[in-house]
Amino acid sequence: MLTTGEENQPLSVSRLTSEIKATVEGRFSEVWVRGEVSNLREQSSGHLYFVLKDEGAQVSAVMFRRDASRLRGNLRNGMEVVVFGQVAIYEARGQYQIIVRIAVEDGVGRLQQAYEMLKAKLSAEGLFDPERKQAVPDLPERIVVITSPTGAALQDFLSILRRRQWKGQLILLGVRVQGTEAAGEIVHALELAQLHSLGDLIVLTRGGGSLEDLWAFNEEIVARAISACRLPIISAVGHEIDFSLSDFVADKRAETPSAAAELISSGFVERLERLRTVRRRMGREMKGELETRRFQLKDMWSRLKAQSPQNKIERGWLRLDDLKGRLGALVSGRLDQQSHRLKSLSDQLRLLSPKQSIEQGKARIHHLRMRLNSLGPEATLRRGFVIARDMKGRPVMDLGKIGQGSRIVFEFRDGSGDFFRVERATQKELFSDAD
Fold first, then answer.
1. Disulfide engineering: 60 pairs with which of 13, 68, 89, 97, CB 3.0-4.6 Å?
2. Which residue, 270, 295, 319, sits at the end of a domain?
3. Is the pTM above the cut of 0.85?
4. For residue 246, with 0-12 CB atoms within 10 Å meaning exposed, 13-18 middle and 19 or more buried, which class applies?
């Protein structure tokens, strides 16, 4: 704006353009425009440049790559479209253009305009504020699913839950998900789930489709019913690029029905994995502890067995047998030792004993007796000799000593003898007479 004192001063082109830019961009920061696409060009960068025209005027338009990637289908020359964006002044050329954020074919464009207007209204009322959103439970035990019972979205949702082994309870409230009666049925299902506390989490879902197909989830009565619900709600409507008003009002948005199932079961899967990890760790620890306890028990059992009365008795018997053996060996050794010693002493005693001397004497006497006997009269008599004895019994050794008239006794072997009175005679005479 020009200040006082500057109103009559000439403006530079840059200043004029800057003033126009500030005014136009401030006035037309959000705008819906209907027209025909012309002179469409796509740059290597992915940006789209085209002209939007009608019977009486035209305006340049640009759609940057990020917004162009979200287009449903492709723009083409001659297409009647409704675009949403803001007016911007390109100062270098002094011309204005529309920076397009959304472009939809006309007809769909009227729905998109209604969508954006309701979105802005609900946002202004604070229905999208994060502070109003409830926390989604990590481990929901009962889930209320509001969707078509015959739709592919339900099958995708259930398939993910089965694959991830979710163990909770699922309650299905079947509704239409498109058409004129769909919004009313969705609101009724939300009220029913809340009234009877059917679960601790609601999943509102359907598969992808056009803006018209998804329109039931953009109805104001559905958005307000979601906002008023006391149970936490996950909105999983359409594909990743689809955004419905239920996504903004709900406590959590999931890009697809499958993503909603993964979101619901993620806490369960995480805890299941943690439980498995803990179970494995506990298994290892328990196994180690059991091994330690088994070793300790085995050691204690061995020690207890070693201290048991039976074991003590058996060890006592073994020790007794050992001592008995050692004692026997000791006694036997001592006996052998004493026997040897006794034999030695006996031998020594035998050498010193009078008995031995006596025995030796007896033997000698016997020997001498035998010799004496062999030389004695009896032996001589047994050899055929005769002993002549005088009256005193003395042997007559010499014939010349026999006196005349002496009495001589002749002793024969058998002890008998004859007595003779003889005169002194010769030996020859003597024996001749005896004959």
1. 97
2. 270
3. no
4. buried
